[in-house]
């Protein structure tokens, strides 16, 4: 369980760095691309919020913690693709 919690923290930190980079790049993105990125991130953020709520209700559930770490990894992957494309 500690591994997942550590993974979540690491992904949260990396996601924030990449979100900051995206904010700087946003002015050069085409509107359609920016909208697609925002949509993808909204779906992932919704899943993260739902998992955080589920974990609050069942904090000892390792499967939920792993799913949360996986969701953050997906967010980081999306942000990395955007960052690398720019």
Please characterize this protein's 3D structure.
It is built from three helices and no strands. It is mainly alpha-helical and 86 residues long. Helix 1 runs parallel beside helix 3 and helix 2 packs antiparallel against helix 3. The protein is elongated and about 45 Å long. The chain starts with a helix and ends with a helix.
Summarize the structure.
The protein is mainly alpha-helical.
Describe the structure using short key phrases.
single chain; 86 residues; mainly alpha; 0% strand; elongated
Task: Summarize the helices and strands and which ones pair or pack.
Elements: H1 2-25, H2 31-57, H3 62-85
What fraction of residues sit in β-strands? under 5%
How many strands appear in the DSSP assignment? Answer: 0
DSSP helix count? Answer: 3
Structural Rg: 14 Å
Report the end-to-end length measured between terminal Cα atoms. Answer: 36 Å
**Which shape, going by the Cα principal axes?**
elongated
Uncertain parts? none
What is the mean pLDDT?
Answer: 90
Helix content: over 70%
Biggest sheet architecture: none
Q: What is the succession of H and E elements?
A: HHH
Q: Oligomeric form of this entry? A: single chain
Q: What structural class do the secondary elements suggest?
A: mainly alpha
């Amino acid at each position: 369980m500690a591994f997942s919690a550590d993974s979540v923290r690491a992904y949260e930190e990396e996601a924030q760095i990449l979100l900051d980079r995206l904010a700087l790049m946003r002015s050069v993105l085409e509107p359609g691309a920016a909208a697609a990125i925002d949509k993808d991130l909204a779906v992932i953020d919704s899943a993260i919020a739902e998992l955080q709520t589920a974990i609050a209700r069942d904090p000892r559930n390792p499967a939920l913690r792993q799913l949360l770490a996986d969701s953050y990894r997906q967010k980081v992957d999306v942000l990395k693709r955007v960052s690398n494309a720019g």
